[in-house]
Amino acid sequence: MSKSEGSVAEAAPTSERQCCPPIAQQRVDAATAADLAIAFKALGDPVRLQLMSMIASAPGGEICVCDLTPAFEISGSTISHHLKTLREAGLVDARRRASWVYYRPRPALMRQLSALLDPGA
Amino acid sequence: MSKSEGSVAEAAPTSERQCCPPIAQQRVDAATAADLAIAFKALGDPVRLQLMSMIASAPGGEICVCDLTPAFEISGSTISHHLKTLREAGLVDARRRASWVYYRPRPALMRQLSALLDPGA
DNA sequence: CGTCGAGCTTGACATCTATCGAAACCGTGT
DNA sequence: ACACGGTTTCGATAGATGTCAAGCTCGACG
């Protein structure tokens, strides 16, 4: 299974599901829950949540792995593994430039999750 | 370690952390990430996400466990275990009335998570 | 006071996950 | 062509997690 280019986002879980109303307003069905739980699970690790915040708040909209790795005590391969999880969840996108790989956020899913948790009034 | 009453919310992870700016605007520090990752992890299971949505969208602001359990194929003890996870994450609150236990959402944390993921503009 | 039903807790088990080191991969520069 | 540094993948392992069955607790109601 070779993935040739770096800009492809490994595809969000199933199909791009429509943006759902907040859970405070309407129940999510099982399929949607299974879908979105993948994204929440990806954020459910301290390292990944920090990685996500570093990527999302990166000035210029992107950040190099070489700037992410030294911020943690864990090995580079583990960082890479966490980044893959975020990628597969559809939360970030990776792109190679020269020798370095840059990550950028995917605001669409972030917005969807944010809207989902909005308690409304 | 006995917890005697049902209305206490098992306490949010550490202390009630201040509402943080969106991750798109500022990095979260390790302690905050560890804290909030617990909540995201709690939502990172399809069953729990559905439970959360059923609780958050319950008319009257609360819902009986007896209305939650039959919506799934899994055993009651597993439902109870998932509800405990949501409780310990600070996402829901349980209260016993007569023979039944009712769950209600805790909007504060939901709002915090929602704001955290807001990509802003 | 004894029993019944609704939920919770405990113990056990199979699966998943976070982590590491080693090896492979892929541009760059010599 | 070769070696180098950054990143990912692979294989292995300890620990966490989802699930169930069985036992327990707490009110309600005879």
From TrEMBL, chains A, B:
<dbReference type="InterPro" id="IPR051081">
    <property type="entry name" value="HTH_MetalResp_TranReg"/>
</dbReference>
<dbReference type="InterPro" id="IPR018334">
    <property type="entry name" value="ArsR_HTH"/>
</dbReference>
<dbReference type="InterPro" id="IPR036388">
    <property type="entry name" value="WH-like_DNA-bd_sf"/>
</dbReference>
<feature type="domain" description="HTH arsR-type">
    <location>
        <begin position="28"/>
        <end position="121"/>
    </location>
</feature>
<dbReference type="Pfam" id="PF01022">
    <property type="entry name" value="HTH_5"/>
</dbReference>
<dbReference type="InterPro" id="IPR001845">
    <property type="entry name" value="HTH_ArsR_DNA-bd_dom"/>
</dbReference>
<keyword id="KW-0805">Transcription regulation</keyword>
<dbReference type="InterPro" id="IPR011991">
    <property type="entry name" value="ArsR-like_HTH"/>
</dbReference>
<keyword id="KW-0238">DNA-binding</keyword>
<keyword id="KW-0804">Transcription</keyword>
<dbReference type="InterPro" id="IPR036390">
    <property type="entry name" value="WH_DNA-bd_sf"/>
</dbReference>
<protein>
    <submittedName>
        <fullName>Transcriptional regulator</fullName>
    </submittedName>
</protein>
<feature type="region of interest" description="Disordered">
    <location>
        <begin position="1"/>
        <end position="20"/>
    </location>
</feature>
